[in-house]
Amino acid sequence: MKKNNSDINLRIEKLREEIRRHDHLYYVLAQPEVSDAKYDELYAELKKIEDENPHLITPDSPTQRVGGAPTKEFQNVTHSIPMLSLSNTYSEEDIRDFDKRVNGLLEGRQYSYVCELKFDGVSLAIRYENGILKSAITRGDGVQGDEITQNVKTIRSVPLKLNISSTLPRNCEIRGEVVMNHTDFNKMNEEKELTGEKLFANPRNSVAGTLKLQDPQIVGTRPLRFIAYLLLDQLNDGNHFDNLHKLKQLGFLVDTNAKRFDDIEGVINFWKEWEIKRESLPFDIDGIVVKVNSLRQQEMLGAIAKSPRWAIACKFKSRKADTILLDIKLQVGRTGTITPVAILEPVKIGGTMVSRASLYNEDYIREKDIRIGDTVVVERGGDVIPKVTSVLFENRKKTSVPFIFPKKCPECKSKLVRFDDEANYYCENSECPMQIRGRIIHWAARGAMDISGLGDAVVDQLVSNEFVHNVADLYDLFKFRDKLKSLERWGEKSVDNLLDGIEKSKSREFNRILFALGIRHVGSSISQVIVDHFSTIEELMKVSVENLQNINEIGPKIAESIVRYLSDPHNKKVVTRLKAAGLKMASQRNKKSGPFQGKNIVLTGSLSNFTRDQAKELIESLGGKVSSTVSKNIDILVVGLDAGSKLEKAKKLGIETWDEEKFLSIINLHKKVTDV
Length: 676
Hints:
By secondary structure, the chain is α+β, with helices and mostly antiparallel strands. 38% of the residues lie in helices and 20% in strands. Strand 15 and strand 16 form a beta hairpin.
């Protein structure tokens, strides 16, 4: 029985509310109630209904977080109220002076302070109209910033629709900080290392770099979090501490460590307390922010130059210490990258005992003239990993000698190589024990083959017990089912779940397999570019460096890396085994040609004979590519019922438009010709 519009509307709204609730539980409260599989099931149902009824899609639907084509440039927007920078202080004396100034300007009135952690991230202003996210703007120069709405929509802790009520505003601006947790940052950098991409220096840099990306699809894969710290609405008679509670009610992450104090002594104690406790946090802070609580008093105090008189940033002292460099060891990364690590005489920095620090590469050691036995300065700045920043040459022993970078891998003793224009050495033995683990972990990761149950601990067991020596061995694990059950902490169910996850990974598309192989410099976006030009792995294995470089987004390093990887006998064997195991080593899109070959097509409105996904699949199977937005690069607009603004835009650009009848006739004509 076909559902009527009323039933469909009710089901859509129920699904949206349920998904929003689960997003809030997972990304804001960290208290998930359902499994990933159940969440995916709800999302898939909503997506299917919306694809079949595109006229019912709304901007606040959970399906609209990631979408649209990459942006060519960001629009510059003026802030409703300037985003002022804060005056900084590093001393108790300056904090007391700040309090004296506030007391004098308020002429003896009672006042209180709110203290919050100062997150080391990127500031944003997000505007809501009638409870729906309207725009998001970077701080910029404080007066104007870039409008990056599509990127911000991908951040799961940013609600697309506010939890509004009679006591909460519908039209408002929320300001806050975008941050990245240490664990997420380290994992992201490990993935970048595996594909030979440049690593981010620290979480703040990774956030800033991500928000500048012009493709929301890529931004959506990055683990960003938004923590709200300011509510701007038409009311200005409340206080900041209550507004933090309102922000939480509206659906935002807020600083749960924020406290209110009636005197400056409480503020100073809070500052000192968090200077010691900062290491316990999962993200970076570089101080605390102190604000006068009353909004009316904030207005009375006003601002001077570019800073408000009612707030101040109390920074922490630099985290560094002197210690002895006992040794320099080489660490092997997942792609064979060799990183020199300083082994230090343990020293306490910012409440944490440090015994190891990064030395980056051979050039860094030479530039700083770092030698074993030196007294060195070690810092813990914005970086998660401590680093050696300088040498106290006056303490150097006369017997010290320059460090000579070893020429053999510390794990497998293979010869190390260093490529032109690169600072790192590499171990190119893909069966090096450290690389085996890394490559399998990358293969199983979400965004690659997405194999549930194949985490770091499981990979360690499989490699240690010599069940796997490369990714192709995963697809033979079913032969060892009984032996796997005998492993520590394993049982029948866990073994079956792992084998089921491996079997399901065979359905992953060709571009994800290319990315999962871990070819240096080949990330997820480059993998898609390759698949758009080569329909099979065999075609790709025959191509030359020169021909690869003819492709727009592929430069010399990427081309050489691909050819070198696919010409290696060991890697060839792995690829052959993967294909024999049933993995898709061919592009479904490029396998067939047809009437849409080389055409960029946009679908708009509701089609009678197909769902949106069915039409998309059909176009791609006949050689075309489906885009979501109308631009001068589009060849055809297929128009269904209730077509919206895309049709008007297409007419202005002179794009060819087809109704569903013409679309069907082209498909049927092709079918008749090919059936003859």
